[in-house]
Amino acid sequence: MTKMTSATETVTEATPVKAPATPALPDAQTVTSVKHWTDRLFSFRVTRPQSLRFRSGEFVMIGLMGDPDPKTGKQKPLLRAYSIASPAWDEELEFYSIKVQDGPLTSKLQHIQPGDQIILRPKPVGTLVHDALLPGKRLWFFSTGTGFAPFASLLREPETYEKYDQVIITHTCRDVAELDYGRELVDSLKDDPLIGEMVGEKVKYYPTTTRQGSPRMGRITTKLQDGSVFADLGIDPIAPETDRAMVCGSLDFNKDMKDVLESFGLREGANSDPKEYVVEKAFVG
Ligand SMILES: Cc1cc2nc3c(=O)[nH]c(=O)nc-3n(C[C@H](O)[C@H](O)[C@H](O)COP(=O)(O)OP(=O)(O)OC[C@H]3O[C@@H](n4cnc5c(N)ncnc54)[C@H](O)[C@@H]3O)c2cc1C
Hey, what's the signal peptide range on this chain (predicted)? Predict the structure, then answer.
């Protein structure tokens, strides 16, 4: 049976409606740009769901549809935790990602192109937020690898500069090229039309490498313990009266940083119990 729905359209009701080749993803967002920084790192931006509200520094679950089950042919979403690297005011969302060659998600995600869709579950959570810290004068961001991502958000967040006189970002990677995303972002802050004036001279950037030669080599934990960070930056050592810190790296890094920060007298806080420092895993394993 056929029926006319308009002058030009004929719908044949007897013909079953064919499923589209790629089924529409649940919570789909569209990729707007992709940049590859090294063979192990890339960043990308996606459309932002209109209803998504988050606090700069939080993370969400994102992913792609997994491979079809060999028995049932059904596909399930393959989701992973990702820090939102863009600030809360941005009309798009940015992510900074590792490429794990045999990683279930990132072996595929690294091939996304503008126009492709990803899944984004709009339920932001996390401890790397201003609400989890008591007021202070200096704010430290300590990161390794993709642990820079939540700080890419917080460095572009006006509240960071409203609340603190000085913001110190440390980023430690194995090789120099792995610092590029962070360096470019820090360099762009002063020219940012929204926060450029607030940033002024407040941000100090302290990159270090652990494998490839660079002007500052070594672990940040060692440099905090021997005081060389403070000497290099010409600032006072960390003290609980003035300093607040956020930490994002591997499990080992986070554990070492906790010990260092506690040795300076800082206590770990949480959303429900703000104190002097907070920690989040950059990845599990
Ligand atoms: C709270 C939280 C926030 C996260 N935010 C980010 C983020 O902003 N960007 C990001 O790239 N990843 C982030 N991750 C890690 C992310 O969830 C995935 O693990 C990563 O995308 C790899 O997924 P996969 O399925 O390819 O491999 P997985 O099976 O998840 O991981 C395989 C192995 O790869 C290594 N690995 C995984 N992620 C990383 C990483 N980021 N850096 C170094 N080694 C890693 C680990 O050894 C892990 O066991 C976050 C994890 C958590 C818990």
Answer: none
